[in-house]
Amino acid sequence: MDAGRLNIPNTLTVLRIILVPAIVILLMQGDYFKALILFALSGITDGLDGFLARILHQQTELGAYLDPIADKALMVSCFVTLSIKHVIPGWLSVIVVSRDCIILIGIAMLAVMSVSFQVRPTMIGKLTTVFQLLTIFGVLLLHTLAMAADYKNFLLSLYVATSALTIISGLNYIFKGIRFINSAT
Hints:
Elements lengths: L7 H21 L3 H24 L5 H24 L5 H23 L10 H22 L7 H33 L1
Helix pairs in contact: 1-2, 1-3, 2-5, 3-4, 4-6, 5-6
């Protein structure tokens, strides 16, 4: 890659990271409509950066690290802020954040133990991310439309599905980590 050429996918990923504080501020102010717009924009850039990286042949090691950081920053920030505002249940945020912390601790342990591994998203991990995104998007949309109370049962079902997938995904990553450790010893 030419050093002077702009890496569009990495630029989009950095934009997603920059949008996180703006989204949190809007959520704190209760401006769910603007937060929804920025959240949707962030989701679009997330899909677009991976697509563009492939077709423009601009996949980089930096992008491989920044993309999941941007995703986690957005998700954790939105879940924590919305639970603090009592828009979503705190238990759901604890599950989402705990899974991500457990994965990070596991990666750090593998690195400290000099265990060779590659972290690749699993199908259950991708499905979990989709449900986490749908949860935030659905909550923001229903609050924007002032219809959250009308869809209380739907939201509860979404919370339960998201938490179940998050737990299953977390366990899946734990078992993969254990297999990495066992195969290295």
